[in-house]
Sequence to fold (340 residues):
Amino acid sequence: MIKAFYRIHPMVTVLFFGLPFSCAAVKTVSIFEKSVTHQRGVDLKVTGIQYIGAASSFTELGAKKKLAMRFVELLTGLKPDRIERPLGIWAENNVIAVVEPVKKRVAVVDLREKRGRAVGGFYYPVDVAVVWNRVFVSDADAGQVFVFDMDLKLLDTVGLGFKRPVGLCGSEGAGHLFVVDTWAHTVYGYNRMLKRVLEIGGRGDAPGQFNFPTFCDVDSRGLLYVVDSMNFRVQIFNAYDGAVVGTFGCHAMVSGCMAQPKGIGVDSRGHIYLADAIFDAVQVFDRDGTLLAVIGRRGRAPAQFWSPADVDVDEKDRVFISDMFNDRIQVFQYYPEALT
Fold:
C-alpha cells in the first residue's frame, strides 16, 4: 500500500516527502525559541500550567526549511510543511510526530537536529508512536500498523487481522507497544519482537471491557491508560499484565464528565490530560477521576481549541495538543510543584 503511493504519485512524493525540512537557509523561529513576551496576555487561569505557543507548520515546531522547499512553495503555491487537521501526536526525547489524515501522511520532527521528515500514502492514518527507535503508524482504513525506521523507511507491519486500529502508545520501560482496535473493542500488547503478548478487553461495560476504545497512553510508572470512548470513561491497567487498576468517568455536558473523549496524555506526576472534542477543551484529572483543571474553550485564539484530537506529554512535562480544526499544534508547560 505504501509502495503503491510512490508508484502512482511520483511528483507528489518528490515535492512533499523527498525534501526533508533541514539544512536551514531560511530562518524561522520555532515556538520553543520565542521569548516570554510572546506568551504574555494568555491567562489560562490554571495554576501550574503555562502556555508556550501554537505551531501551524513543522518549521514552527522546530524543523528548519531548505531553500529547495521554499522554491517549491513559490513555484506551486503549495506549503508542504503546513499542518492540516492534525490527529494523533507523539512527543518524547525531543522527537515530535504528527498524523495528518487529510494529507494521508505522518511527519516526524527531531528537535535536536532541527530536521523534519514525512511519509505519505496511507489510507486513513490515525495515530503514531515512536518506540525502540522505530516509528509506528496506525492506518484505520487499511487495518494495519506500519513500522518505519527513524528515517521513515518502511520496515514491517505489526500483527494481522486488525479490524480498525486507531490509538497507539508504548514505552521502553513497559516493554510493550499497545494497539487499540476500536471495532474489536480490544487493546493488544506487543513486545520488541512485535509478537503479541497481551490482549485486554472485549465488548461490554464491566471493568476491563470496552465500548469503542480510541486512544491510549503509558506513564513512567508502568500504567496503561485507555480512553473507553462510548463508555465515557478512562480505564487504567497494569501495562505489564493487563490487570485493571482503576476506572473513572461519567457522561454529561458538564466539566468533570465526558461528551466526546479522544486523546489522552499523562505527566510526570500522574495527572491525566483528556481531550474532549465537544467541550473544545482538555480536562486534567488525577487517577481517582477528580477534576483538577480545564484548559481552553471554543475559539481560535491562543489556548483555545476547535475539536482537540489528541494529547501527549513529553519527559519535560510539555503538553502537546493537536488542535484539529484550527490546523495547529498547541504546546503548554506543566510545572510539577504547582498543580495538585
Notes: The longest strand covers residues 49-55.
